[in-house]
């Protein structure tokens, strides 16, 4: 038995993420998940925790310089873990070629909200259908500030239909893979989350599974950048930071490592500080000016 069809995407955040415990259990037992073992109680609880999370109101009404990424979760074959879908950016891209990323991109005028942005970009990049029944909305996180001054909103969804087949857009994505969500809370690859060795244990002389670097940002205050060893490429920077926070919400625990640098600003304070910078507003002015040209050239 499957749950009733959820309401379509709406501009009201109060109507999003209305995923009840009954719907969750119905979905977990539905025929669409027959390709895997039943989700473990731990995985079901993690999904429920995410669905119950209500993000604070978005205080940034401007559409310029906004983007969204889709944190697309699904059960592992054993049902023990929740995995997240990740892609490797094409080497031909102008920004961050070859890096691991979450599907996503800039908000368009036609997007009714940031959930729509994340879903549209995921469809364009990896062929995930814009379907609120087969790919259920769970929650959104407050925005993160990228070094480019872009505000990036993570949108978390759960895949119910395991018959979906990704179709990569080679101009944007060169590879697609998955990784255990809970692995972003551990500094040790032998941690219990790896029921099947993934990644392989770190050998002597090899790169550690989890590393950090603290870089100065505003006012000389440092910001911590995390990196996790993965195949085919490490998961680093903003992508890693977003997934740490999603995992913390899902599993209701802190990571096994220090999340922040000493005296590091919160994301909310970081964005407030960035809004005092001319570069922050210049970025948005240039975006407004080039948008009509990009629309004419079919790039939006």
TrEMBL record:
CDD domains: NUDIX_CoAse_Nudt7 (cd03426)
Biological processes, Gene Ontology terms: coenzyme A catabolic process
Gene3D superfamilies referenced in this protein's UniProt entry, alphabetically: Nucleoside Triphosphate Pyrophosphohydrolase
GO molecular function: coenzyme A diphosphatase activity
Region annotated Disordered, chain positions: 1-23
Bias-annotated ranges (Polar residues): 1-14
Keywords: Hydrolase
Residue ranges annotated for the Nudix hydrolase domain, each copy included: 64-201
PANTHER family: NUDIX HYDROLASE, NUDIX HYDROLASE DOMAIN-CONTAINING PROTEIN
UniProt protein name: NUDIX hydrolase domain-like protein
Organism encoding this protein: Rhodotorula toruloides
